C-alpha cells in the first residue's frame, strides 16, 4: 500500500483483510518480490500471500524508520517530529566525518546463526554458494521455530550410504536432503527452501553479509567464523543439536567480542613478552 498521505488510523492493516470499497484484499510479500507484483495477487478468491511476513528480526526496520523520519519528516500534526529529527541529526554528527567507520557493536542472533550455519556447511562440504543458501535457510527456520514451534528440536539423521547433499526423501510437495546431519527441504534446482521460497546466495549477501558489514567488515567476520567453527570436530558439526548447544549458543550474544576480537588478540600475542607488554 503506497500513498502520499495515509490516515493515521490506517497505518496498520490486518493481512488478508478486505478493502472497504474495492474487491481486493490486503496481501503481504517480501521486498524481492516487488518487481514482479501484479494486482491479481490481491484477488480475494485466489490471492497470492506470503505467510513469511510473520518472520522478523527485532529492530530490522529501525534504519528505514530513521531514514524516513529524517527525509520525509513526520506525520502532519505530530508535534514530536521536530524533536526526533533533531535527535537523529545530533546522532549522525557524533558519528564523525562522512565515511568514517568505527568497528564494533553487537551482531544480532539471527545474523550470527546464519553466519555460523554457513561456516558449518562450508567446513563440511567446501561449497560456498550452497553454504550461503543453507545458512540463510537455517536462520529463517530457527526464527520460525522460536516464535511458532517452541520446544522443537531438529531431527538428527543417521546416514548410512547416502552422502550429504543427496536428495533422500520427498514429503508432500517438498524434497528433502540430508545436510549437516538433518533433513532440510530443497527446491528442484538444489537450493535450500523455506516457505516455498529458495534461499539464494545473493540474498544471503544482501540480508546477512550486508547487515554484518555495518558492524564489522564481513570478510573479517567470515574468516573468524570459519576458524571458530573449524575448532570443533566433525561429530559436533554434523549433529544439529550439539551444534546449536555447543557452537552457536555460547557466542550468540557475544560473537564480536568472543570470536572476532579474541581472534585478533590471539594473533597479536605471539610470545610471553608480547602477552605481558
Q: How many structural domains in the coordinates?
A: 3
- Strand order across the largest sheet: 1-2-3
> How does the helix and strand content classify structurally?
mainly alpha
Tell me roughly what share of residues is in helical segments. 40-55%
The total of beta strands comes to 5
Rg over C-alpha atoms, rounded to the nearest angstrom? 22 Å
Provide the low-confidence segments as ranges.
155-172
| CA-CA gap between termini | 61 Å
Please state the average pLDDT score: 77
Main β-sheet, in a few words? 3 strands, antiparallel
Q: How much of the sequence is in beta strands?
A: 5-15%
Element-by-element helix/strand order: HHHHEEEEEHHHHHH
Number of helices: 10
Quick one: overall form? globular
Structure report:
By secondary structure, the chain is mainly alpha-helical. The protein folds into three domains: about 10-55, no CATH class; about 60-95, no CATH class; about 110-250, no CATH class. About 45% of the residues lie in helices and about 5% in strands. The protein contains ten helices and five strands. It has helices at about 60-70, 80-95, 110-125, 130-150, 200-210, 220-230, 235, 240-250, 255-270, 270-275; strands at about 165-170, 175-180, 180-185, 195, 195-200. The strands form two sheets. The chain has a three-stranded antiparallel beta sheet with strand order 1-2-3, with no helix packed on it. A two-stranded antiparallel ribbon has the order 4-5. A hairpin with a 2-residue loop joins β1 (about 165-170) and β2. α3 packs across α4 and α6 (about 220-230) packs across α9 (about 255-270). The longest helix is centred in the middle third of the chain and has 21 residues, at about 130-150. The radius of gyration is 22 Å and the shape is globular. It starts with about 60 loop residues before the first helix and ends with a helix. Mean pLDDT is about 75; it is low at about 155-170.
Amino acid at each position: 500500500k503506497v500513498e502520499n498521505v495515509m490516515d493515521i488510523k490506517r497505518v496498520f492493516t490486518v493481512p488478508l483483510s478486505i478493502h472497504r470499497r474495492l474487491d481486493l484484499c490486503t496481501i503481504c510479500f517480501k521486498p524481492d518480490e516487488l518487481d514482479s507484483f501484479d494486482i491479481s495477487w490481491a484477488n480475494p478468491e485466489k490471492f497470492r500471500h506470503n505467510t513469511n511476513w510473520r518472520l522478523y528480526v527485532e529492530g530490522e526496520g529501525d534504519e528505514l524508520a530513521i531514514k524516513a523520519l529524517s527525509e520525509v519528516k513526520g506525520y502532519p500534526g505530530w508535534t514530536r517530529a521536530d524533536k526526533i529529527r533533531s535527535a537523529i541529526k545530533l546522532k549522525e554528527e557524533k558519528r564523525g566525518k562522512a565515511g568514517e567507520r568505527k568497528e564494533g557493536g553487537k551482531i544480532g542472533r539471527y545474523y550470527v546463526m546464519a553466519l555460523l550455519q554457513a561456516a558449518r556447511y562450508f567446513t563440511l562440504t567446501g561449497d560456498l554458494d550452497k553454504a550461503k543458501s543453507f545458512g540463510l535457510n537455517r536462520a529463517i527456520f530457527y526464527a520460525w521455530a522460536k516464535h511458532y514451534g517452541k520446544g522443537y528440536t531438529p531431527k538428527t539423521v543417521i546416514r548410512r550410504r547416502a552422502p550429504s547433499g543427496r536428495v533422500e526423501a520427498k514429503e508432500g510437495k517438498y524434497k528433502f536432503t540430508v545436510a549437516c546431519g538433518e533433513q532440510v527441504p530443497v527446491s528442484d534446482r538444489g537450493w535450500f527452501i523455506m516457505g516455498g521460497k529458495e534461499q539464494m546466495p545473493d540474498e544471503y549477501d544482501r540480508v546477512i553479509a550486508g547487515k554484518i558489514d555495518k558492524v564489522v567488515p564481513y570478510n573479517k567476520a567470515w574468516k573468524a567464523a570459519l576458524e571458530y567453527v573449524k575448532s570443533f570436530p566433525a561429530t559436533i558439526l554434523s549433529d544439529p543439536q550439539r551444534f546449536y548447544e555447543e557452537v552457536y549458543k555460547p557466542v550468540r550474544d557475544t560473537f564480536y567480542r568472543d570470536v572476532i576480537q579474541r581472534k585478533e588478540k590471539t594473533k597479536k600475542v605471539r610470545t610471553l613478552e608480547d602477552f605481558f607488554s
